[in-house]
């Protein structure tokens, strides 16, 4: 499975974002991801586990070495998102609704 296919799946990046600070169980992930169904959560957890990005642990699920390396990219993406939001605010632009 190509990385963009995996990360483009709904909730995949959010789950990885939530795991960046340490292991979480399924209930904690569901609580942090409003609107995420348990069936989609478990599907994404299986996909992310089989891809070697997360692993089951005694505390739930956690990032593997590869997943931790990926979390560095999240930091850069978060920095960009802050700049983008500030630019939208400065120019009185907002997300367009369709």
TrEMBL record:
Alphabetic keyword roster: DNA-binding, Transcription, Transcription regulation
PROSITE patterns registered for this protein in UniProt: HTH_HXLR
Coiled-coil region list: none
Domain of life: Bacteria
Residue ranges annotated for the HTH hxlR-type domain, each copy included: 1-89
InterPro entries, per the entry: HTH_HxlR, WH-like_DNA-bd_sf, WH_DNA-bd_sf
A matching Pfam family: HxlR
Gene3D superfamilies: Winged helix-like DNA-binding domain superfamily/Winged helix DNA-binding domain
Classification via PANTHER family: HTH-TYPE TRANSCRIPTIONAL REGULATOR YODB, TRANSCRIPTIONAL REGULATOR, MARR FAMILY
Full protein name: Helix-turn-helix domain-containing protein
Organism: Streptomyces sp. 900116325
């Amino acid at each position: 499975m190509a990385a963009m296919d995996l990360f483009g799946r709904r909730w995949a990046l959010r789950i990885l974002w939530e795991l960046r600070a340490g292991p979480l169980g399924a209930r904690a992930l569901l609580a942090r991801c409003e609107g995420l169904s348990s069936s989609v959560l478990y599907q994404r957890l299986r996909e992310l586990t089989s891809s070697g990005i997360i692993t089951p642990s005694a505390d739930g699920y956690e990032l593997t070495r590869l997943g931790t390396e990926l979390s560095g990219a999240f930091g850069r993406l978060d920095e960009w998102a802050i700049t983008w939001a500030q630019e939208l605010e400065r120019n009185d632009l907002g997300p367009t609704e369709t």
